[in-house]
Amino acid sequence: MSPREFSEDDVRIRPKERTRPRTKDRPDYSESQIGRVIAVDRGRTTCLIEETGLIVTAMKSRELGKKSVVVGDLVGIVGDITGSEGSLARIVIVQPRKNVLTRTIDDSADFERMIVSNVDQLGIVIAAADPEPRHGFVDRALVVAFDQGIIPLIIVTKCDLADPTEFLAMYADLDVNVVSIKRGGDLTALRKQLRHKRTVLLGHSGVGKSTLVNALTMSESRATGDVNSATGRGRHTSSSAVALKIDLDHNETGWIIDTPGVRSFGLAHVERDRVIGAFPEFAPAIEHCPKNCSHDEENCALNHWPSLSDSALQRLANLRRLLAEGSK
Ligand SMILES: Nc1nc2c(ncn2[C@@H]2O[C@H](COP(=O)(O)OP(=O)(O)OP(=O)(O)O)[C@@H](O)[C@H]2O)c(=O)[nH]1
Ligand SMILES: [Mg+2]
Ligand SMILES: [Zn+2]
């Protein structure tokens, strides 16, 4: 006899909906529909059933406990999945995530917050001015992208206000794409980078993430807010993440995820070696470091490495700052 007997379960029309093996203790959710979370707002989750195109509102079932559901998650949904007005389905399974974008509230805190999952590309959004761009943020975001295996893309908005060339010089040697954007300007270069990808936009409040999402989707679906002229900061206009589909040329599509502006972007959840790994240009030098080098000591090989360009020296200072600020 074969090790496994066939049963009527093997006759299924859509076998891929079966997400987990049945066990005695777990309720049977093999009939759940798979949906992609496209918005989460105060406990209400909006899911797209990719197979049918239906948009379903759902809430987390009790079984999921404290497990969070974030934009990008693939979830199993049961209950009223008609998507009709007022209907509310239940999310019973969160499928394993390919990656997650997490931040700690500050470097020392243990408190982690998941922002989004299952993305292909991290749009690191900075403004050329208003608010001023900061290397610390870009470096941290690059570390997280590297750590999670997400393609980084630096997006500079508000290039009508200032020239970002000097700010960007430090990243010129890196293998990272950069696109610059002006108010009302041409988005062709950016649209090319978004093809067939799920891209999340991450940046401080007021850098223009929602403005960009509106331009890309040719809608006004996302509210935007001005930058406070006294503090130079944004007003935290967007309060939750939303994924939107964008139509690109030649019937191609992509997804863009707008997120609330980040206040701080801690790295406490990223191991020290992975922070260093996000600066691959220093790997050849680091091979010559003394054992357990802190990379901030006299004998550190990085101090004596001959061929560091000006931009590499700046990156080195940033790496050292990130290490000093304390990641695990
Ligand atoms: N000059 C100029 N202003 C821009 C540009 N892009 C956005 N803005 C302005 O910047 C301000 C903030 O834009 P938002 O799109 O709300 O910024 P956000 O990043 O979504 O901010 P939060 O939702 O708070 O995180 C608005 O007043 C926009 O009109 C640009 O390319 N040039
Ligand atoms: Mg916004
Ligand atoms: Zn060293």
Can you give keywords for this protein?
328 residues; alpha/beta; OB fold (Dihydrolipoamide Acetyltransferase, E2P); Rossmann fold; globular; disordered N terminus; binds guanosine-5'-triphosphate; binds magnesium ion; binds zinc ion
What does this structure look like?
- This protein has 328 residues and is of the alpha/beta class.
- The protein has 3 domains: 8-94, OB fold (Dihydrolipoamide Acetyltransferase, E2P); 100-258, Rossmann fold, CATH 3.40.50.300; 272-325.
- The protein is 18% helix and 24% strand.
- The protein has 7 helices and 13 strands.
- Strands 10-9-8-11-13-12 form a 6-stranded mixed sheet. The chain has a 5-stranded mixed β-barrel with strand order 1-2-3-5-4. A two-stranded antiparallel ribbon has the order 6-7.
- Strand 6 and strand 7 (112-117) form a beta hairpin.
- Helix 1 crosses helix 7 (310-325).
- The protein starts with 32 loop residues before the first strand and ends with a helix.
- Residues 157-158, 160-161, 181-183, 203, 205-211, 224-227, 234-238, 260-261 line the site of guanosine-5'-triphosphate.
Element-by-element helix/strand order: EEEEEEEEHEHEHEHEEHHH
The radius of gyration computed from the alpha-carbon positions, rounded to a whole number of angstroms, is 23 Å
Q: Which hetero ligands occur in this complex?
A: guanosine-5'-triphosphate, magnesium ion, zinc ion
Oligomer: single chain
Structural class computed from helices and strand pairing: alpha/beta
- What percentage of amino acids are in beta strands? 15-25%
CATH topology title of the largest domain = Rossmann fold
Shape: globular
**What is the straight-line distance between the termini?**
53 Å
Tell me the number of structural domains. 3
Low-confidence stretches: 1-17
Largest sheet: 6 strands, mixed
Number of DSSP helical runs: 7
By DSSP, the count of extended strands is 13
CATH class of the largest domain: Alpha Beta
What's the architecture of the largest domain in CATH terms?
3-Layer(aba) Sandwich
